[in-house]
Amino acid sequence: MFNTHGGDSEVLWVVYRSSDTHVTRLENHSLTQQAIVPLTGPIIQIVGLSSADGSPDTGSLKAFKVLPGQGICMRVGCWHATRVEQDPVTCAMLSRRSTTLDLAEHLNKGTDLSESAYHSVSLLLT
């Protein structure tokens, strides 16, 4: 059924390229869960909870290696970032169409985010 508010689910192909072990930014989405399945190599998925003020609870941050064919589903409001070990990795992602559009317009046109948020952090993966 068509949802006029953009809540339709969509499957995306995303390519993660960053192998930087210093994580400086996390993101979260206020209306959508996201599922990610790496297809061409492993990813490192960093996830964490929110503090009472809505910012990332840095004490809850964990990093997981997710192998091709495995997957991870992040709940609404999960702070997260993705890294790769070396080569770019293509993943299948299940998301919400309006969240994808929100992020794309922000990145391409500089519009304010309405369904997502970024927060600066300083985290070193070991």
Kindly list the characteristics that best describe this protein.
Jelly Rolls; four-stranded antiparallel sheet; three-stranded antiparallel sheet; globular
**Approximately how much helix is present in the residues?**
10-25%
Specify the number of helices: 1
- Count of DSSP E strands? 9
CATH superfamily: Ureidoglycolate hydrolase
Per CATH, which architecture?
A: Sandwich
Question: Per the principal axes of the C-alpha atoms, what is the gross shape?
Answer: globular
Structural class: mainly beta
As for the CATH topology, it is: Jelly Rolls
Q: Which CATH top level class fits? A: Mainly Beta
Q: How many domains is the backbone divided into? A: 1
Could you state the oligomeric state of the chains shown?
single chain
| Mean pLDDT across residues | 93
Radius of gyration over alpha carbons?
14 Å
**Share of residues in strands:** over 45%
Given as residue ranges, the uncertain stretches (5+ residues, pLDDT < 50) are none
Distance between the termini: 45 Å
N-to-C order of helices and strands: EEEEEEEEHE
Mind describing the biggest β-sheet? 4 strands, antiparallel
